[in-house]
Amino acid sequence: MPNPSFMNGVPELLVLRTLEAKEMYGYELVQAIRARTNQAITLGEGVVYPALHALEAEGMLKSRRKLVNGRTRVYYALTKKGEKHLAGLVRHWQHITDAIGLAIGGTAHAAIAL
Amino acid sequence: MLQSRFDRLSERLLTAGIVPRHVRRYCRELGDHFDDLVREEKAGGATPELAETRALARLGSDDALADAMLSRPELRSFMARYPWAVFGLGPIALLALSVMGGLYLEFWLLNHSGGIFRLWTGQGPGPVNAKLATEVYTVYNTLIVYGGPLLFAWALYWLGSRQRIPMAWTITGVAIVCVLGGFQDIIFYDTGCRGCGHLIVHSDLVPPFQHFAQHLTRAALNLAIAGGVWWFKVKRRTSHALALSRAA
Description:
The complex is a heterodimer. By secondary structure, chain A is an alpha+beta fold. Chain A has one domain (about 10-105): Arc Repressor Mutant, subunit A (Orthogonal Bundle), CATH 1.10.10. In chain A, about 50% of the residues lie in helices and about 15% in strands. The longest helix of chain B has about 35 residues, at about 125-160. Chain B is elongated and about 90 Å long. At the A-B interface, helix 2, helix 3 and strand 2 of A face helix 2 and helix 4 of B.
């Protein structure tokens, strides 16, 4: 998806949705997003971290350092505030995908695939 | 090569006002991510050189990595957003707080120190204990008046250089703290009877300018010490950078 304005809010949605299931560190998260979107959405892998830092600064995520195989990783997990925000984002994107589904003549059940 | 790339990225982000804590963590996370990508590419059959090239490409270009951080205004530090508050109003607030805090502690000590002085001198309230109290509090006040401004000047310099704040702001903050601090005074005399001491707090920047020359000298001394330390640090950093570039 090359249109940046259309992609506004997408990284946050993908990050929050992916972290909903379990806490992850950056590399693990990027791979999980690629797998969940069938590689349809490929973020520059390094640019996921500013999104994580910003979401943490807003209280949507919390982080903790964890020693794994001799290396310290920063693990991110969803907070209660993040869960509420994610629910709002999902509703918003479902509206958009429904509307686009109608506009292009398909059904209004074009579910958001995350 | 990767380290120098992250060093450049780090400098760019700090200069743009991103909080140092986020910059350090970002570079560390990118380094770890790069290692993971190289491992993944090698596991897929790539040679070490090809694995590194592909990992760098997947990580993102320098501009993309910097822009991703710079497009987040919430990651900019308070100091970068409001340097006038930190380096203009900050020194005044710091000096005022140090004097207020010093006085508060002094009042508390005065109310509780009778027993200590009695233990020390073996005498009750009177001229002997009053003399000792005056000496002790003179040392304490001297530390606040002489040490405080220099300590704050060092703190402002450290904060400014850590966030790559333009040198003009740091110099302004240090100059304000050195000059205002040079003109402030806290004087205490214990006259020996309960509630009869004298505690004088004043700045000679307001009339009647009784010891103006003396305070001006102290302000100049503060500026000279702060400037000297700054010059020494810059000189040391320059020679260190020269040695590094020669080694490279």
